[in-house]
Amino acid sequence: MQSINQKIEFPFSSNCTVYIKREDLIHPIVSGNKFRKLKYNILQAKGENQTKLLTFGGAFSNHIAAVAYAAKKNGFQSIGIIRGDELEYKVNENPTLSFARNCGMQFEFVSREIYRKKSEPDFIENLKEKHGDFYLIPEGGTNELAIKGCQEILNEDDNAFDYICCSVGTGGTISGIINSTSEHQKVLGFPALKSDFLKDEICKFAKNNRWDLISDYHFEGYGKINDELVAFINTFYKQTKIPLDSIYTGKMLYGVFDLIKKGFFPVNSNILVIHTGGIQGNQGMNIKLKNKNLPLIQYHD
Ligand SMILES: *Cc1c(COP(=O)(O)O)cnc(C)c1O
């Protein structure tokens, strides 16, 4: 599957050409990189004759929504280990978890303290005793098969670009992109969170060093936003009709246009930004913003 590249007509882009790869249009819920990351994992689980997928995630996780939907579509049961035991009684108020439950996902809510142990062998063993055998997909979905899927984001025509920009969470998506670039290209990753380990994570999977991380646009941390970011997302939507999410793609595009403004890119650079999706998360974010009486994210008419 190939997504279209759309030219962005936006102020400041005058001395560079910016295109956006619309991976967000793959599916309204299982959009962008989460679809890519699951593709080969689903094939692997089928090959192993597994019947259950189990994974981990937070309250508004794009990954949880994607796994729940992919499980339903491919005839798997699914189990979501969800961070925050207070959420158990709030599923109805949470659009992401409601969607996942409607897809048939079973939840186990755990405290933040227990959630931190999610990669420990004892914890996984415990889950097997409770739920029976399952195919495990890590938090955020990053593993070797996910990277194989993300290597399919770029295609031959994308060789025309000098820079590829994408948002970074766990580092799986950017690793796949890095592995499918050509000699003359450079990949810039914009972390959506503060992390000292991201570089090491990417080094585990990346097969060349044509990449860098730009860590100035995480807006103080994962899921943290401010008025300026919301205003940017809304202006961008008004001018281009392209919706962004506030956790990943909004921060990345804010960064790209800020760098263009500051002259970071050589004049006449051809830049491709990857729209990794995540629009489902706006619903939950807007509920939070509304409760605080703050301006909402605009992402549809
Ligand atoms: C999960 C996600 C990312 C980050 O992907 P990683 O592979 O974890 O780095 C970026 N954008 C969106 C919309 C996502 O949902």
Written account of the structure:
Belongs to the ACC deaminase/D-cysteine desulfhydrase family. It holds the Pfam family PALP. InterPro entries: ACCD_DCysDesulf, TrpB-like_PALP, TrpB-like_PALP_sf. The active site is at 61 (nucleophile). With 301 residues, the chain is α/β, with parallel strands linked by helices. The chain folds into two domains: 5-29 and 145-291, Rossmann fold, CATH 3.40.50.1100; 51-133, Rossmann fold. The protein contains eleven helices and ten strands. The strands form two sheets. The protein has a six-stranded mixed beta sheet. Strand 7, helix 7 and strand 8 (186-191) form a beta-alpha-beta unit. The radius of gyration is 19 Å and the shape is globular. The structure holds pyridoxal-5'-phosphate (PLP). Pyridoxal-5'-phosphate is lined by residues 32-34, 62, 140, 142, 167-174, 245, 248-249, 276-278.
Write a concise synopsis of the structure shown.
The chain is α/β, with parallel strands linked by helices and 301 residues long.
Measured distance between first and last alpha carbons: 27 Å
Computed structural class: alpha/beta
Radius of gyration: 19 Å
- Tell me what the CATH architecture of the largest domain is: 3-Layer(aba) Sandwich
Percent helix, as a range, is 25-40%
Largest beta sheet, briefly?
6 strands, mixed
Q: Which spans have pLDDT < 50 for at least 5 consecutive residues?
A: none
The CATH topology of the largest domain is: Rossmann fold
**Helix count?**
11
Order of helices and strands: EEHEHEHEHHEHEHEHEHHEH
Strand content: 15-25%
Number of domains: 2
Pfam families: PALP
Active site: 61
Cofactor: pyridoxal 5'-phosphate
Organism: Flavobacterium luteum
